[in-house]
TrEMBL record, chain B:
Protein name from the UniProt record: Cytochrome C
Pfam families: Cytochrom_C (PF00034)
Nucleotide-binding listed as a keyword: no
GO MF, one annotated term: electron transfer activity
Record keywords, A-Z: Heme, Iron, Metal-binding, Signal
Cytochrome c domain boundaries: 55-142
Span of the signal peptide: 1-24
Region annotated Disordered, chain positions: 157-182
Organism: Bradyrhizobium nitroreducens
Amino acid sequence: MTSKTSSERLPRSADVSRRGFVGGLSAGLLGVAASEVARAETLADVPDRAPGADLGAHSERSRFARLDRIPEATPGKRNIDPSDAINSKTPHQKLVGNITPTDLHYERSHSGVPDIDPAQHRLLVHGMVRKPLVFSVEDLKRMPSVTRIVFIECTGNGWENWKKADPDLTVQNTHGLVSTNEWTGVPLKFLIDLVAKDKGSTWMLAEGGDGAGVDRSIPLTDEIVNEAFVAYGQNGEPLRPAHGFPMRLVMPGFEGNLNIKWLRRLKFGNAPWMTRWETARYTQLLANGKARQFQLRMETNSVITQPSGMMQIQPGYNRISGLAWSGHGKIAKVEISTDGARTWKQAQLAQPVLSKAQVRFQMDWDWDGKPTRIVSRSTDEQGNAQPDRQTFIAAMGTNALFHYNAQQTWSIDEAGRVRNVLA
Amino acid sequence: MSSHDKMFLAGILTFGLLAAPALAFDFGRPATPAEIKLWDIDVGPDGKGLPDGSGTAVQGRQIFADNCAACHGDNGQGGIKDRLAGGQGTLASNMPVKTVGSFWPYATTLFDYIHRAMPYPTPGSLSTDETYAVTAYILSLNGIVPADGKVDKESLPKIRMPNRDGFVPQPEFDPAKLFRRK
């Protein structure tokens, strides 16, 4: 028997209903197209085994698995030329588990991705210190290290839904600005000890080596001093350029833009610097015209990724799955409603549940085929609950642009079409 | 054992490491005052960090036309990138317009940002005087300094921006209260 390529075999009409069911659940999953799933109808149709391709220096994804980030701009500005993009979003609808693949980690860069030779990169640590020091990447790698799995989230995550819900959005459009990776680097506390920081220094300026020189003032709370680190490793390898190669700050649980990429300067002082990013940019305009400033921690959040926007499901068994995270610590529970937030059931969490990392949740669901809405809500170990949209908008208004963590609702119509709605 | 040694020992225990403490002080090299000065570009709201020099709005008009208008539009409006002027009175509306004049709380931040990040293709390419001049021009577009106004390191921190009181700190990280007990 010769092996068949997919183009040689057309689906038979009898396959259609089953294909619809399987395809509905897995159309997006792992990027495998529905037509690929149902081509081997009997075991005799499965292509023969044969020697495969040569072994390479590194492995690539299967040509059948199509996974891409999407470069986008501000809310409503999608399908843009990459040169106009300000961020690139993670395809959560196609991912499983807790960890985001390195090349699919979301990105927000303020002046493109610099091409930095690590041999010529330096980190200056100075200000209110006894011994201002200059470190190379090799210096950092020789120091004691920490490795930690944490989410990083752009404060713009969710910003498509402040004022309206475009029905054609996927979860990648609505929630693609959060990802979880394992990061390795030097504890901030270790650097603080090396330079002998003045006890009177309570704030630190962190500055990047990108064209914009992005800089943020960071309060030196016990939590931040104990948890922040300067990372050079990402999922076991050097940082990718998009994520700060050769070194970046990692601030578990805090605004993505505080995790300064291409880090080249830490300066110790005793008051915030009021940089452009912490005044004009990453502040949240409330309904009364005042702006909330230094809202540094990322909130308790969750979203259903399967089924999610632009998928289609069939009546009967469906498995609901998604991601939950909180800048306050561990996720304690995730609840799911399949009747438009009237009744809730607790979802199962994938282990391990880590502090300030995304965790996968799932629940079985038997859909009766009637139009409905599905929604998730998370609660963290400190008792912070993800708000419903009405409560959230009542507190924040619709102009804040950043820090959107209201519950995400997906509507499902009688044909099983899943669409983005406000609530 | 000194308190510093204790701290380091605590660090070893925390991270489960066995490095010899004596090596801890061998990392990196001292930074010289001259090289710190090269990189120490940040400007605080009190004006700390502002360099000597000055510029006028009249000088800034031409520098803006040559370096900024392509993205920000003539007069800081109608360009493809951030609008820099106007928008006062819109912040509580359904279509807020955030500009230097309507939103930015500190004039010092404007100098700092132009100096570090602008013009976008060639950040840092304007001289100190040119940066002061463009700062003065953008402020003049918003009626914050007169059309023939001049700014320098003395005057810039004294400018009271229209939206200076428009920001409310999140209580958890309010700079006025955060480290009060320490």
